[in-house]
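Forwarding these from the shared drive since the link keeps breaking.
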Amino acid sequence: MKLEIKIDEKSYIESYLSIVSLGALECIEKGIISCEGAMKIIYFPGMIEKLEELFPGLGEAIHLGTELEDVVSIIPEKLKVSIEQIRAINYTSIKLGEKREQHVFYSLNEGELSQML
């Protein structure tokens, strides 16, 4: 199965990824996913360089997110502080009110879905 997401406005791309990051942080705090799980969804190192170039704040938040697993294993008492730091950066990266309304378009390839079932 393949899910494609289309957003054609730069500020909305940044906002969308920040909202996904906030959701991942919430799930980590509630024990729904682990830091390792969040790395598979949003905090993967392969995105850092490009995001830091395009969206410095969001890039910093993603970079810090890739370090959460280390925080848990080395200094677990600092996890809450680290999450709050990432959350604060994400809040400043959400710019949904700028310019114009933007819809997020999703496309799900059902042909591949039926092959999986």
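-- next protein --
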Amino acid sequence: MPHFIVEYTANIQTEARIPELLKKGVDALVGEGYPLLGMRARSLQFDEYVLADGREDCGMVHVTLKVAPGHASAKKQRTCVVVFELLKAHFAEMFARRYLLLSVELVEVASGDGSPTLKMNNLGDTLSS
């Protein structure tokens, strides 16, 4: 059920290798013990944005991780660190030559108040979790 969502600014699109980053994100989450079954990775490109003082040569990449509730704090923290290290490595070359804001956050999809989430898939016979 984990989601790996990449938001990024249009001014880095040609060199960001977003499809590669999405695959790396899925691999990282699976490596941290999250189930492949129901995994979702996607990206959102922003054409309109203001970063810092508005300079046009500044880019941004933000990763949101959405996970089911119930994971231990230590696991969630470790997952954020693993994904942030992946993000830094993926963008290291770009980071060395231009202004770039990188960030990662992890949120639980359903809160402790019992708010529901509804989902369904038919991948059970084709993937192992």
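The chain has one domain: 3-108. The mean pLDDT is 91.

- D.
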